Prior knowledge:
Elements: E1 2-10, H1 12-20, H2 24-34, E2 38-44, E3 51-57, H3 60-71, E4 76-83, H4 86-93
Antiparallel strand pairs: 1-3, 1-4, 2-3
Amino acid sequence: MAYYIVLSTLTDEGRKTIKQKPERILEVNKEIESMGVKVVKQYAVLGPYDFVNIVEAPDNETVMKMSVELGSRGSVQLLTLAAIPVDEFIEKLK
């Protein structure tokens, strides 16, 4: 399994939804898991992004499908970064 960092920014529509129904965040997490992507950690943050998620998925294609599905809803914009644990990174450099 591979790790990914997903930075998300809510649109006006997304902010409206979260304000009216904050538990929607957990519902979306379940939908993401049904797509084959496991939410490892999730943080609400201040600054240019609203959420930082660490997710695990079998491959880039699975994460791409998740990003397209969520982005097509119009409630969130995503920036997804592939992440390599530092111990694996060091090992691959040897």
